[in-house]
Structures are given as C-alpha cells and as structure tokens.
Amino acid sequence: MKDLYTFSKSAWHVRLFKWIYKTDPTKTFKTMCPYFWSLVVTMIVLPLILVIKLFGKAGTKLLSKLESYKRDKWESDKVLFLDRCSKELTEEQAYKIWKTKCWDRYYYYLDYNVEQSIRDKYNNYRYYLNDQKKVKKEKITEIKESKYFMYLAYIISAVVISTVLYVLYYLVSMIEFTPIDWEFVGVSTLLILGAIVIVFSVIGIWNYVVIPLSKRISCMECKLCQYGIGSYILSVLKFIWRGIVIICDMIYMTYKQACPRITWKNEQ
Fold it and tell me: From residue 166, how far is each of 116, 156, 157, 170 by CA, in Å?
C-alpha cells in the first residue's frame, strides 16, 4: 500500500500514546518497529495500564519509565561501549569487543581512528589464532600418521558401533507394538484434507468472487454511497485492511531485520 507508514500527528494511536505515557511518539520514534511493538504491548496490557493510571501522576510516571526503559538502557549501553573502546586495548581485548553484539549496534558512533585501531588489533589477533590452530592441526596430523593410532582407532570404532547397535536392538525388543488404529488414521486424514479444502476455498472465493465483485461495484451507482453510509463502511474496511497489512508487514520486516521509517504529517 502507498504511504503505509505515513501517519497523522493527531492520529488516535498518537493521542493514546501521549495520554498513557506522556511521551510524544512523533518525536521519539523515527522508525516503525519500536513504535509498532510498543503499541502491541500497550494494547495487550491495556487493562493493567488503566488500573495503574488510577494512581494519577505516580502511575503515569511509572508507565513512562517502563515504556522508555529499553531506550534508556540502549543509550546507557552505548555510553559504556564508547567509554570501553576509548581506552588503550590489547589485541585480545579488541578481538573480544569486535565479537560482541554491542559492536554491531554502536561501532558507527566511534571516532574513525578508534574504530580503525580496534579493527587492526582484531585482525592481528585473528591471524594469531589462525596460526595457533595450524600448529594444533599439525600436531594432530602427526598423531594420526602413527600406525599405532590407526589400529587403536579401528578397535575403538568397532567397540562403539557394536555398543550402539546392541542398545538399539535392546530398546526395540522392549517395545510392544500395537495394531494400527486405521479409524483414527482415516479421521485424521479427512480432517487434514478438509482443512486444505477450506483454505483453498477461501483463497479462491477471495480472488475470484470478492475482488472481482468489489471492482464491479466500485464502477456502479451505489444508493448507500449517496447517503454517506457506503463511504463510512468503506473507510472502516480500509482501516481494518490497513491494520492487517501493517501487522503482516511488520512481522516480515522484523524477521528480515529491516525497519521502515515513519513519515509524520500534520493534519490537513
């Protein structure tokens, strides 16, 4: 949908957010992911929120703290990360910092020289670890090339395989097999086939009945539309449809770790 993430600054969810948390989402949220999931959590725990709001300013202050906790923690972690990186680091410390999740989140806040220094130390320590692995691999290869190692490996393998086969045989012999309940299998198969038929029927009705019919009606004179009832019903359906599209798209965007930007517009 065009302008899917374009919202009015006076939309109902904006006013709800301001009333509950005393926070202006149009200034706090620039991307949709945190705003969407904050609204989802808000709607889920709305009865509890209403109870807390009964405590007046104290309740509102508590809700505001809870809502901003994640953002405050993100900012606090960023400060700690930048402070840690600004110190003189060994190559091992730089390697460990680069491997943390904090590096992916905050590295672009670092000064260029600091970031480059950590990257160089990380690469140096990585080369050192690779050299150590090569040394260990060479030692293991020397052991494997020994003829005594080959005989010992064959004996151990034979013992392990024999033990596993015996345990499997023993476990299978303990199972008392019962006759197959063909009636249950038949009912389960019918239920699965029925579910498949229903799903494809709904898809078919939507694609070949609902959509063509809606297109045809849109080109016809509608008496309900003359009284404004049709436009009201249509706006409700559009609202519901847009909500469904946003929910599906946000689940997909969260999975892809790609958060769309929000466009806030003034009410015309």
Answer: 58, 15, 14, 6
